[in-house]
């Protein structure tokens, strides 16, 4: 059987989480330092370690079958490839920033100005939708120093906490796009490779679902069971087991991470006690 070839960033902000994801999917491989390739010992997958900017092109050309990149890189390179899965890590945004001392009221600030960025296509599209014409200077790194050296009046760059902007005397003024890591795939994959990709996505879904949910065990008096069951619908319905103590039950269920604290409060109000919350490694609905 031919291998599914997966392109992953060689070293950078996507690398560690990308590799962890495959490990959590039970895919074993040995990625020794400075290797360009690695072969899994228990799944027909081969890893190619590349610069993230090269990944969309390699996937389009079929050198790699799938890859992991930020949505920002995917959109910038505009290759004919498909996004097959949002992965939830490397969340960041692409933003416009200007020197802190500038008076900024709205996007018209940028009319006729020079803006430095590594994302000229995304920026151009954004400015077009806002009806702004600006001079876009493409530079490949250290964009944040451009205003300081007189190259541009503003920049468009990746921001997560904003600390890099701050330390370069800049302030964020507009969000151009939000980004997270995505899995992209060659749209011309063979049927055989599609099968492998679907198996991989099934595993990824079960890992991501597990992370988004918690297993909850609690004790409650029997007269509050109905209320508690309505708060904990679980996957199909919760498990209810009698406790040795008369009139009490133990309830086991699954709750979503997003609703966690609110739900716990409501459960306590409904009479639940002895609440245990346990991480879930994999979840298959
Ligand atoms: P390469 O050498 O592979 O070209 P790079 O310097 O272009 O690497 P990184 O800085 O490693 O890229 O970022 C890779 C991706 O991670 C970015 O395209 C973006 O999607 C995401 N990213 C960048 N900065 C952050 C951040 N501060 N927080 C979260 N995600 C980020
Ligand atoms: Zn890059």
TrEMBL record:
Its cofactor is Mg(2+). Catalyzes the condensation of ATP and 5-phosphoribose 1-diphosphate to form N'-(5'-phosphoribosyl)-ATP (PR-ATP). Has a crucial role in the pathway because the rate of histidine biosynthesis seems to be controlled primarily by regulation of HisG enzymatic activity. NCBIfam families: hisG, HisG_C-term. InterPro entries: ATP-PRT_HisG_long, ATP_PRibTrfase_cat, ATP_PRibTrfase_CS, ATP_PRibTrfase_HisG, HisG_C, N-reg_PII-like_a/b, N-reg_PII/ATP_PRibTrfase_C. The gene is hisG. Belongs to the ATP phosphoribosyltransferase family. Long subfamily. This is ATP phosphoribosyltransferase. Feedback inhibited by histidine. Its EC number is 2.4.2.17. It is found in: Cytoplasm.
